[in-house]
Amino acid sequence: GTIVIEAAQMACNIAAGSRRRFAFEKYVPFQKQVWDTLKREAVAAEVVRSPDQKPIIFGSDVAHRMVDFAQRNAARAGVADVIEFRGGDALQRLPPIDVSTTGGGVMVLNPPYGERIDVGGVAKGGPRPAGDSGGFEDEPNVPRFGARELPQTEGAGEFFNQLASHWKKNYAGWTAWVLTPDLKLPGKMRLKETRRVPMWNGPIECRLFRFDMVAGKMAGKA
Q1: Do residues 83 and 74 lie in contact, with contact meaning Cβ atoms separated by under 8 Å?
Q2: Residue among 51, 50, 85 at smallest CA distance from 66
């Protein structure tokens, strides 16, 4: 539930990491009174929702076990009331809300890849994730996985084609973002992306594709 939980925390103006403890709190230079003041200021700036307000963010997974995990994580993150989780097949998932009067909705999809859907190439050299530091360090001869030009399996291609048809039929007015290492994904979906953002997911080179959906077809480029 990482994507939806972090989106919910942003919507509620919950400071990142405000519900956890950090290792630096054990360091000698640590000033507890300063840190406590910063945390109180962050909590005071949070958006407080009334109990009768409906969820504004929705998440789903085909594995109901993962849905249970996500619900627990959302509760620990303080946003359980902001999110509605459901299980089910993405090809049968209908829009959770009517966006015709709100100016549209946003979907984010991070489909399986890497070990489960093999990436297409390995590039030697270049920056590499630097462990827990959260940055990158330059080390030669460290493999990184490049965005793939080769098609995926026929089964995966058929799934994305069906998903695009489902979106066009049921998700008019929505914007869909798909994170994938497959450069050929828009062709598989028979959709024309309106944005293509290069980014890395750990060591895997990906693209974040944006698709603007209108009834039965794609919207023109902005």
Answers
A1: yes
A2: 85
User: Rounded CA gap, 186 and 210, in Å?
Assistant: 10
- Per-residue confidence band for 19, with pLDDT thresholds at 50, 70 and 90: confident
Cβ atoms of 92 and 21 within 8 Å: the answer is: no
Q: What is the pLDDT of residue 17?
A: 87
Domain range summary for the chain, segments of one domain joined by +: 1-88, 100-222
Are the beta carbons of 148 and 121 closer than 8 angstroms?
yes
Give the residue, 17 or 144, on which the prediction is more confident: 17
Radius of gyration over every alpha carbon of the chain, rounded to an integer in angstroms:
20
Tell me how far CA of residue 95 lies from CA of 12, 34, 42, 51, 186, in angstroms: 23, 45, 33, 23, 22
Chain-centre distance for alpha carbon 178: 8
- CA separation for the pair 133, 149 (Å, rounded): 31
pLDDT tens digits, one per residue of 78-118:
999 999 999 989 999 999 998 887 778 999 998 876 444 44
